[in-house]
Design a protein that fits this description.
Elements: H1 8-11, H2 18-37, H3 42-47, E1 51-53, H4 60-78, H5 85-98, E2 100-104, H6 107-121, E3 135-137, H7 146-150, H8 166-183, H9 192-208, H10 214-228, H11 231-248, H12 260-268, H13 276-289, H14 294-297, E4 310-315, H15 326-333, H16 335-338, H17 343-356, H18 358-380, H19 394-404, E5 406-417, H20 419-422, H21 427-435, E6 439-446, E7 460-467, E8 476-482, E9 495-497, H22 499-505, H23 518-530, E10 548-550, H24 565-570, E11 574-576, E12 579-582, E13 585-591, E14 604-607, E15 618-621, H25 624-627, E16 639-641, E17 654-657, E18 671-674, E19 678-679, E20 685-687, H26 693-704, H27 706-715, H28 723-727, H29 734-738, H30 749-761, H31 768-773, H32 785-802, H33 807-814, H34 818-828, H35 832-850
Parallel strand pairs: 1-2, 1-4, 2-3, 4-5, 6-8, 13-19
Antiparallel strand pairs: 5-7, 6-7, 8-9, 10-20, 11-12, 12-13, 13-16, 14-15, 17-18
Helix pairs in contact: 2-4, 4-5, 5-6, 9-10, 11-12, 11-13, 17-18, 26-30, 30-32, 32-35, 33-35
C-alpha cells in the first residue's frame, strides 16, 4: 500500500503506520481529552468530544482515536487508571456511536470504515451502532459553507472551462452580479440559522434514541431516513449543491443556467416547483463531483451552539495534484501516448485520438474538464483563500479545510508533505498559522526507512498539529530530518520557534526554516539578530543592495534564438574569442549552470554528442593546464545575438546562481561570476543596483561564504532555489563593507576583500572589464591552486568574523560540510579547508584583541602584479 492516497484511487483505502498515528493522537487529541477530564462533568464532556477524519479510508485514525477516548471514559467511570477490558469495550461502543465522524469520496472506503468501526466496538448482546449519519460519502474539498452560501454565488464562479462558450459565460457573470446586488443576504425560508438548527435538532433526535436493542436501532434508521427526505433537508441540500454547480456546470447556448437566483429559489421552494432542467443538471453534477457541505453533513457540530466545529480533526489526506496528469491518465488506456518523450509530443498524439480513437479522446476531454472544474471550485469559491492558489495539490487544501473545521478550543493533526511549511505555494497558509499562533508542532520525516512504502526515500513529510483560536500556542515545537518516530524523543533535535522567530528568520514569507538540531536553530537565530535579510518586503521595501532578479534566456522557449558554431561559421561570422561577429552584430556565448562554479567561470565546456552512447549537452570539465591559459574560455553549445539580450551597458560582469540545489550537496548556494553573455534559466541572475565592480564583487563574495551557506542549508525546503529564499538570506549591507575591518590597519572591509576576490575571479581575458571597473588595468591572474585555497580561506575567515561567529561555532559550522571534508581528506589526508580557515580566524581574532593588524598568509600579497600573466598573452579579441 502507498501513502498519500494514491492506492485509495482504486481501492478506497490506504495504510498509515500506527507509530505516526500514535504521535498525532498525543499532540492533537490528548490535550482535548485532558480538558474534558478536568471539567465539572468529565463523563459528559468526553462523550461530547467530536473527532473527524475528512479522508477516512478504512478508518485507521478513527479507530485509534475511539480507543483513546473510550479508555479515558472507562477510567472516569471506574476511577481506575487501567480500567477492565469489558468496561473499555462498553465505552468504546458509546464513543463510536457518538464521537466519531468520517468522510471519504470512495463508497467502498465508507463501507469499509463502518465495518472496521463495528468490528472494533462490538459488545456482546447489543446490535451494531448506527453510523449512517457519522460516516458519510462525498468529497470533503468540494462544498460550501453557510457563510459563503449567504453571500450568493460569487462572480468568479463564471469563468470559461474547456468547452464553454465565452459569450455565455460573460452574460451569466453579468446577470449573477445584478442578482447578488439585489438579494441582500440569501435567506432560507425563516432564516438560514433557523433552518440549520432545525436540521441539527433532527440529528440530535437520532442520537437521543437508545440503540441497545434491534428495535432502537430500527427507530434510529427510520428517523434518519425521514430527515433525509424532509423538506428542510432537501431545500438546504439542493441550494448548497446548486451553489457549487454554478462553478462547474456547462456554460453554452441551451445549457441550464445556474446563478444566484436559482440558488435562492432552491432554498425557498420544494424541488418540484423549480426548473426541472436546472434541478437535473445539479443532480448530475452531484453524482459527478460528490459535493459535500460540512454544515449539512454534520449540522449537530456546526449549529452554533456546540462550538461550531470538531473537537479534533485527524488524518492523512491524499497528496495529489488536482490538475489532470496526462501521463498517468494514459498509462493503461494508451501506453503509446503515456510514453511520449515530452509534453509537446504527447499533446500531438492526444489530438490525433479525436480521429483515431474518438471514445478515448472523449473520455480524456471529460476527465480534463472535471479536473479543471474541481480546480476552479477550489481556487475561486472563497473557501480556501490561503491554499486555493495556482496548481493546487489536495494536501494543501485538505490542511486548510481541516484547520477551518476545528472548534475554538479544538486541535487538528494531519500528515502532509513538509512543503506545507517551506514552499512558496503554501507560504500564505503557513504565515497565517504563525501569525495567529495556530501552530503547535511540526515533526518532519525523511522517508529513508521507508516509513511509506512506494514513496521515494528522499521524500519529506511531516506530522503537523494545529490548534483553535481559543487555545493559541505561544511557540511551536519542531523536529526535522527524523527517520522514525523514536527520533522525536531526541532532545538535541527538538527546538521551539515563536512567531517572533519566524518574523526574524523569514520576515517576508513566515515559512519554516529546516533545522537539523537545536544548535543549528540557535546559531541561525543569532546570525539574523546581527545581519539583515537581503530584501525585506514592504511597504516600504528594504533592499540595501538594490538587488533585482532576472531569468535571461529560457532554454526551451527561446531555442529559436540559438546559433551553433557551425551555423555561425557558415553564415560568414568571425570568431573573436568567446564571441562571434557578423557585420554590425555581436553574438554572445550562452552560459548554462554546469559551465561555471565558485570563483571559476571556466569550469566546463558543453559538448554536443550525436552518438547513442553519450547523452547530448554534457559538461567536459577543463583541466588545470587549460585554466592556466588566460585566453581559454568555456565553450558553449550556442550563441545568441546581443540585441536579443537585456544586457545593461554599465555592468562589467554578471552574478548567476544555480536554480537547482540541495542541503545535502557539497555546497548549497552555488554562485558564479560570469562575463557579459547570454545566460540560461538554470542560472538566474542577481543584479545589484550599484553597477560598479566593487558592489558586484562584494555582494558575490558575501554570498559565497561558508557561513552564509550554513544558513542557506537551514532555509531550503526543496530543491529549487526560488527568489523568495534568496531574498531572505542574511547578507551584509553595503554599509558593512564601507566600515573598517577590525583586524586591518585602517582599511575597510571592501578594500580588504576586493584584491582577494579579484585574484580569484579574474583568471581569463574575458573578465577584463571587471578588473578595469576596480581600477586595475592588468592582465589576468595565474591559476595557482594552492594559493587559491589560501585566498578562499582568508575570505571565509573574514566573513565568519563579520557575521559575529564565535570560534567554537566556526569549528562546528565547518563540520556541517561533510562532502568538503571528505574530499579534503581524500586529497590531503586532513580536513585542510577547516584547518586553514581556523588558522586565519585565530590570527584575525588576535589582531582584533591586540590592535596589531592581521598579516596575510599570502606571499606575495593578494592581487600583486607579479601574479599576473604577461601582457603578451593578450589575444587579438581582447584588444
Amino acid at each position: 500500500e502507498t501513502a498519500g492516497g494514491n492506492e485509495r484511487k482504486t481501492t478506497g483505502s490506504y495504510y498509515t503506520p500506527t507509530s505516526l498515528i500514535t504521535e498525532l493522537l498525543d499532540s492533537a487529541l490528548e490535550p482535548v481529552l485532558d480538558e474534558a477530564v478536568a471539567s465539572g462533568d468529565p463523563e459528559a464532556a468526553l462523550l461530547k468530544v467530536t473527532v473527524l477524519d475528512p479522508a477516512c479510508g478504512s478508518g485507521h485514525f478513527l479507530i485509534a482515536a475511539a480507543h483513546r477516548i473510550a479508555k479515558r471514559l472507562a477510567s472516569v467511570r471506574s476511577g481506575d487508571g487501567e480500567p477492565a477490558p469489558p468496561l473499555v469495550q462498553h465505552a468504546l461502543r458509546e464513543v463510536v456511536a457518538t464521537c466519531i465522524h468520517g468522510i471519504d469520496v470512495n463508497e467502498m472506503a465508507v463501507e469499509l470504515c463502518k465495518v472496521s468501526l463495528w468490528m472494533e466496538s462490538m459488545e456482546p448482546g447489543k446490535p451494531l451502532a448506527f453510523l449512517d449519519h457519522r460516516i458519510v460519502c462525498g468529497n470533503a474539498l468540494l462544498g460550501t459553507t453557510s457563510e459563503l452560501l449567504a453571500k450568493g454565488v460569487p462572480d468568479d464562479a463564471f469563468k470559461p472551462l474547456t468547452g464553454d462558450d465565452r459569450t455565455v459565460v460573460t452574460s451569466l457573470r453579468n446577470r449573477n452580479r445584478a442578482e447578488r446586488a439585489g438579494q441582500g443576504t440569501l435567506d432560507f425560508g425563516n432564516g438560514s440559522d433557523d433552518l440549520r438548527r432545525t436540521i441539527a435538532a433532527g440529528y440530535a433526535a437520532i442520537d437521543e434514541i437508545a440503540d441497545d436493542d434491534v428495535a432502537g436501532l430500527a427507530a434510529k434508521e427510520r428517523r434518519w431516513l425521514k430527515l433525509q427526505h424532509s423538506d428542510e433537508q432537501g431545500r438546504a441540500q439542493l441550494a448548497a449543491d446548486a451553489w457549487c454547480a454554478a462553478f462547474v456546470a456547462p456554460k453554452s447556448i441551451g445549457a441550464a443556467e445556474i446563478t444566484t437566483t436559482f440558488v435562492r429559489q432552491a432554498a425557498e421552494r420544494p424541488s418540484s416547483s423549480l426548473d426541472a432542467s436546472k434541478v437535473d443538471t445539479v443532480v448530475r453534477l452531484i453524482q459527478q463531483y460528490r459535493f459535500l457541505h460540512f454544515h449539512l453533513a454534520f449540522p449537530h457540530v456546526f449549529d452554533g451552539s456546540s462550538g461550531h466545529g470538531f473537537s479534533c480533526v485527524l488524518g492523512n489526506p491524499p497528496w495529489e495534484r488536482v490538475k489532470l496528469q496526462e501521463k498517468e491518465f494514459f498509462a493503461e488506456r494508451s501506453p503509446e501516448v503515456a510514453a511520449a518523450p515530452n509534453a509537446a509530443a504527447r499533446k500531438q498524439l492526444i489530438a490525433r485520438l479525436e480521429a483515431d480513437d474518438p471514445a478515448l479522446f472523449l473520455a480524456f476531454r471529460l476527465a480534463a474538464r472535471q479536473a479543471e472544474g474541481e480546480s476552479h471550485l477550489l481556487r475561486s469559491s472563497g473557501r480556501f483563500p490561503l491554499c486555493g492558489r495556482g496548481d493546487v495539490n489536495t494536501y494543501t487544501v485538505f490542511a486548510e479545510a481541516m484547520r477551518n473545521s476545528v472548534a475554538a478550543r479544538g486541535r487538528a493533526g494531519v500528515i502532509v508533505p513538509s512543503g506545507i511549511a517551506t514552499d512558496d505555494t503554501t507560504k500564505h497558509f503557513f504565515a497565517d498559522l504563525v501569525d495567529k499562533r495556530s501552530l503547535v508542532s511540526l515533526y518532519d520525516f525523511e522517508n529513508a526507512a521507508p516509513v511509506f512504502v512506494g514513496v521515494h526515500r528522499s521524500f519529506k513529510f511531516c506530522l503537523l498539529t494545529l490548534t483553535g483560536p481559543d487555545r493559541a500556542a505561544d511557540a511551536a515545537e519542531f523536529v526535522f530530518f527524523a527517520h522514525q518516530t523514536a527520533d522525536l524523543a531526541d532532545t538535541e533535535r527538538r527546538f521551539t520557534l515563536s512567531p517572533d522567530d519566524f518574523k526574524l528568520l523569514n520576515p517576508n514569507t513566515r515559512t519554516c526554516p529546516v533545522f537539523r538540531s537545536r544548535r543549528d536553530a540557535d546559531l541561525t537565530k543569532d546570525i539574523y539578530t546581527r545581519v539583515p535579510v537581503l530584501i525585506a518586503d514592504g511597504p516600504p521595501e528594504v533592499n540595501p543592495w538594490g538587488v533585482q532578479f532576472e531569468r535571461m534566456i529560457d532554454l526551451t522557449n527561446d531555442a529559436a534564438l540559438f546559433r551553433s558554431a557551425e551555423e555561425m561559421q557558415s553564415s560568414g561570422a568571425t570568431r573573436l574569442g568567446p564571441r562571434f561577429v557578423r557585420g554590425g552584430s555581436e553574438f554572445l556565448p550562452l552560459y548554462q549552470g554546469i559551465m561555471a562554479t565558485f570563483f571559476d567561470h571556466r569550469a566546463a565546456d558543453i559538448i554536443r554528442s550525436e552518438t547513442a552512447k553519450t547523452r547530448q549537452n554534457q559538461p567536459r570539465y577543463l583541466e588545470v593546464a587549460e585554466k592556466a591559459d588566460p585566453c581559454r574560455t568555456a565553450e558553449p553549445i550556442a550563441w545568441i545575438e546581443g540585441r536579443e539580450l537585456p544586457l545593461r551597458e554599465a555592468v562589467p560582469a554578471l552574478i548567476g546562481f544555480a536554480n537547482i540545489a540541495s542541503p545535502t550537496n557539497e555546497r548549497t548556494f552555488q554562485l558564479s561570476i560570469l562575463p557579459r553573455s547570454a545566460v540560461g534559466n538554470s542560472l538566474p541572475l542577481m543584479h545589484p543596483a550599484k553597477t560598479g565592480a566593487s558592489a558586484l564583487l562584494g555582494l558575490y563574495c558575501c554570498c559565497t561564504a561558508l557561513v552564509l551557506d550554513f544558513v542557506v542549508r537551514q532555509k531550503l525546503g526543496g530543491t529549487t532555489m526560488n527568489y523568495f529564499y534568496v531574498q531572505q538570506f542574511p547578507v551584509l549591507t553595503p554599509s558593512a563593507f564601507a566600515a573598517p575591518a577590525p583586524w586591518g590597519d585602517e582599511v575597510t572591509l571592501e578594500s580588504w576583500v576586493m584584491p582577494r576576490a579579484l585574484e580569484l575571479v579574474y583568471t581569463a581575458w574575458d573578465l577584463e572589464p571587471l578588473a578595469i571597473g576596480l581600477g586595475r588595468k592588468c592582465p589576468p591572474f595565474r591559476w595557482l591552486i594552492p594559493r587559491r585555497a589560501l585566498l578562499r580561506a582568508e575570505l571565509d575567515a573574514c566573513f565568519f568574523h563579520s557575521y559575529g561567529i564565535e570560534r567554537d561555532d566556526v569549528d562546528y559550522i565547518m563540520e556541517t560540510f561533510p562532502i568538503v571534508k571528505r574530499k579534503d581528506e581524500t586529497a590531503f589526508g586532513e580536513y585542510r579547508t577547516k584547518r586553514l580557515v581556523l588558522e586565519v580566524y585565530d590570527a584575525m581574532a588576535k589582531a582584533i584583541e591586540t590592535g596589531e593588524p592581521y598579516q596575510t598568509i599570502l606571499d606575495p600579497p593578494p592581487a600583486d602584479p607579479s601574479l599576473c600573466h604577461p601582457e603578451s598573452t593578450r589575444p587579438d579579441w581582447a584588444r
